[in-house]
């Protein structure tokens, strides 16, 4: 089967979308020799992938909007793949037969997060774009049952939506590094975004340190995007006081070690389409503190320490408890590893292969 995918997401440092797409393709290739995958892109790619995946760069001199709307469809029409996958929330160009288009819509959180849009026009434009992508697709993929429910709730969908849960993208390290008696840091992994609950996390860390109720540091991994002056001020205060360290993007190897040696991942997010960091953490034996919001309970089950992020005392209690109680840390570590074992790229790849074979023949 001749399979193309839109690889423009890989023209930037690997984010969750890029990593999970490559994991899916690699797992598919490992399960069948009949799938011939080619990455289509305009700019050089910033990630490495399996040698079994071909890479084709073209149309470098054109403006990107023209490349996507005309050059990409022309290339696809000329080279006649059986399927083309758009793994980055759609943005499907015109002039493609919907019979060959697969689209992954990871979530529609903009319609869930209060005050996300600046105007009614922005919201209407977003809805039109997503509906257009749905209409242009033969198959819709999403990453959680929660996201599937929200897509059906907000759009007209007259085709199947296939739920493909992510597997872990970070491999666990050797077991002897996991059951530590004492570490000196909590960990946050993800983007700096208002929906992630980072302001309340930093507020509570600062207060607990000022009142000497907490000794541990907080390490933050992810793109440094200071989305408000107040958030930037909180970060600067934590760094100045010596209990906050920002690492930005890190290698998968370093991230695995950070997970495996942390007291816990603290992930106070209210809005997730999936929630990859908690799954990565559980897979590495790292206890998790998180919320019962949106898709997170679907991924974490009963294997994590849940908090109500709107109740600041809840977060305080979680941080203090996990810093001081090795028994709870070990219990959550074991439960998390067991929960994470329910998610695998092999299983998702089998479901993907079965479905694309079904719709192609």
What are the main properties of this structure?
15% strand; 12 helices; 7-stranded parallel β-sheet; 3-stranded parallel β-sheet; alpha/beta; 13 strands; globular; Rossmann fold; 2 domains; single chain; 361 residues
Summary?
This protein has about 350 residues and is of the alpha/beta class.
Summarize the structure in words.
The structure is a single chain. With 361 residues, this protein is an alpha/beta fold. It has two domains: 2-167 and 344-360, Rossmann fold; 175-340, Glycogen Phosphorylase B (Rossmann fold). The protein is built from twelve helices and 13 strands. It has helices at 16-31, 64-79, 120-135, 145-154, 198-210, 229-241, 252-261, 276-283, 296-300, 312-324, 326-340, 345-360, and strands at residues 2-6, 36-41, 54-57, 83-86, 101-104, 139-142, 161-163, 185-189, 217-221, 244-248, 265-267, 288-291, 305-307. The strands form three sheets. Strands 3-2-1-4-5-6-7 form a seven-stranded parallel sheet. β6 (139-142), α4 and β7 (161-163) form a beta-alpha-beta unit. α1 crosses α12 (345-360) and α8 crosses α11 (326-340). The chain is globular, with a radius of gyration of 21 Å. The chain starts with a strand and ends with a helix. The model is unreliable at 175-181 (pLDDT under 50).
Shape call: globular
CATH topology of the largest domain: Rossmann fold
Stretches with pLDDT under 50, minimum 5 residues: 175-181
The major β-sheet equals: 7 strands, parallel
The assigned CATH architecture of the largest domain is: 3-Layer(aba) Sandwich
What's the mean pLDDT score? 93
Number of domains: 2
Task: Supply the number of helical segments.
Answer: 12
Number of strands: 13
